[in-house]
Design brief:
By secondary structure, the chain is an alpha+beta fold. The chain folds into two domains: about 120 residues, no CATH class; about 110 residues, Aminopeptidase (3-Layer(aba) Sandwich). About 25% of the residues lie in helices and about 30% in strands. It has a ten-stranded mixed beta sheet with strand order 1-3-2-10-4-9-8-7-6-5. Strand 6 and strand 7 form a beta hairpin. Helix 4 crosses helix 5. The longest helix is centred in the middle third of the chain and has 17 residues. The termini are far apart. The mean pLDDT is about 95.
Length: about 260
């Protein structure tokens, strides 16, 4: 079962990077050039100009724009551990390495550096939670609680579950519209209104999305920043397995 989960996650994540993850060699950092690094992410205004994934088994790949490969390869020669990805000096060197390719494409230089952990889960690994009334949402008929934003880009056909309390949606989990393997991989987003946290609502909504995607043999993908301990705890409590870490340099593309 674990092998099937990882195979789906690796295929999905590999498509996002334009990389063959199973072919990577542990202990070596591969650099791949991809035109995806010059395009906005589905449903977002960000262009992920550099996407570096480091898997827990030691495999690592950096996805960069066409033409930036040699400069990035030279810049990462001394990187041997995922902990180095937070080094400000390394981040600046990578920005410089990307600059010519982004200038040629007419794109702004990346100002946003983000790090996240990512996890995987399927129906077999799922630890269900049932805190509150959870239902599938297809529209905005039920208003969100203060401080909560409904994923309207996922309505009406996207996979969205919300916990309803006091006649309002207080927590929501949903599958991002990535346009990649959406019937097989639920790339999860989750949000809970500030006044309703620490009640198990996020776990309940996430459980519902995992259950739904697993009905058709699919799996779920969950990511959060390394310092968001509450979000990581939510993932683990629902049955998600740690799988790797991402480092992304992004720029905002208007229009």
């Amino acid at each position: 079962m674990l092998e099937r989960v990882l195979a789906l996650i690796e295929r999905y994540h590999g498509l996002r990077l334009d990389a063959n993850l199973p072919a990577l060699t542990p202990g070596r950092v591969a650099v791949v050039e991809s035109p995806r690094r010059l395009r906005r992410e589905q449903s977002y205004a960000f262009v992920h100009a550099l996407w570096w994934t480091w898997l827990l088994d030691g495999r690592s790949v950096v996805s960069v724009p066409p033409g930036a490969g040699p400069a990035v390869q030279a810049a990462i020669g001394g990187v041997t551990a995922m902990e180095q990805l937070t080094d400000p000096a390394l981040i600046q060197v990578l920005r410089v390495a990307l600059a010519p390719a982004l200038d040629q494409a007419g794109l702004p230089q990346p100002r946003r550096a983000s790090h996240d952990l990512f996890f995987a889960c399927d129906g077999a690994a799922l630890c269900p939670h049932n805190h509150g009334e959870c239902r599938r949402l297809r529209d905005t008929a039920i208003s969100p609680a203060e401080g909560l934003h409904l994923p309207t880009h996922c309505f009406p056909d996207g996979l969205v579950y919300g916990v309803v309390a006091e006649s309002q949606v207080v927590s929501v989990a949903y599958a991002h519209r990535t346009n990649l393997m959406e019937e097989q991989v639920a790339d999860l987003g989750v949000e809970t209104a500030p006044g309703y946290r620490r009640r198990g609502y996020a776990q309940t909504a996430v459980s519902a999305v995992v259950t739904e995607i697993a009905r058709n043999g699919g799996v779920a993908y969950y990511s959060c920043s390394p310092d968001n301990h509450a979000s990581a705890a939510t993932a683990r409590s629902v049955g998600f397995m740690p799988y790797g870490r991402n480092f992304v340099l992004s720029s905002l593309q208007e229009g």
